[in-house]
Amino acid sequence: MPISLGSRFRFRLIPFLAVAVAVAIGVTAGQWQTRRGDAKQAIEALMAAREVAAPVIIGDAPLQPDAVEYAHVKVRGQFVSDWPLFLDNRPQQGKAGFYVLMPLKIEGSERHVLVARGWAPRNLADRMRLPEFVTPTAIVEIDGLARKNTGHVMQLGTAPKIAPGAILQNLEIEDFAAASHLTLQPFILEQHLDTADGLARDWPRPSGGIEKHRGYAVQWYGLALAALLFFIVTGFRRESK
Question: What is the dihedral of CA 199, 121, 137, 79, to 10 degrees?
Fold first, then answer.
């Protein structure tokens, strides 16, 4: 409603507290979305810089995760086929499924690198049935993207024991190293090369969703501003003559 010169502002405690909460929520959520957008923008810039660089060859020498994350990497080695792991709750195109992980023994070394080989759909009739896929038995060359981890999802219930064929929600490299007794590079190789194994490799881009976060931030800031303006405008009452 329009505010006239004959109006005065009437402060009311309960509406003020409600608006203060709404403004706090809007500003806090807006700031969080802004930080998420900024973080993904930084990832996009780092990926762009490392995409044009020469591939990093993974060998026996341990590489620092921060130095190679999002870099194009290559490795030759042999899959340890008796140590498959399955990360649950990784849907693609609206379908439930797993990320299939498996260590690769680096050629000429006792060191391994954990490879996120690809995605496989889940059997909805038998949720504990593991997907079928082909594992090369010979030495292969794998290329892809270095990642600190494969992302995290909400842990549902108690985390199961890390063992061959385990279905897990999340996995840390140091935990896998302790369970498998393998010496590992301290990062994961997200495989991009197709090895005719029956797995999909439509990996989500780590920097995806920048504009979505920016849009959400604007909405939350707009909510905070609207709540404040509503409190101010409705607080004015025309003085009676």
Answer: 90
Distance CA(206)–CA(64), nearest Å, equals: 19
Please say if the pLDDT value at position 105 is more than 70: yes
CB 140 within 8 A of CB 76: yes
Q: Which 3 state secondary structure label does DSSP give 98?
A: strand
The pLDDT of residue 241 is above 50: no
> Would you state the structure tokens that stand for residue 98, as one six-digit string?
């797993």
Contact between residue 146 and residue 187 where contact means Cβ atoms under 8 Å apart: yes
Question: In sequence order, which ranges of the chain are alpha helices (DSSP H)?
Answer: 13-51, 65-68, 173-180, 210-235
Q: How far is CA 52 from the centre of its chain?
A: 23
pTM over the 0.85 mark: no
Q: 119 with 202: CB under 8 angstroms?
A: yes
Higher pLDDT pick, 76 / 232? 76
Q: Residue 184 has which token pair?
A: 């590992």
pLDDT one-digit tens code per residue, 117-149: 999 999 888 878 888 899 999 999 999 999 998
Tokens of 224: 């905070």
CA atoms within 13 A on the CB side of 4: 6
Q: Give residue limits of the domains in the chain.
A: 1-52+216-241, 56-191
Q: Tell me whether residue 29 is exposed, middle or buried, using C-beta atoms within 10 angstroms of its C-beta: 0 to 12, 13 to 18, 19 or more.
A: middle
Dist. CA 207–CA 39, nearest whole Å: 8
Q: Which of 139, 144, 149 is nearest to 57 (CA)?
A: 144
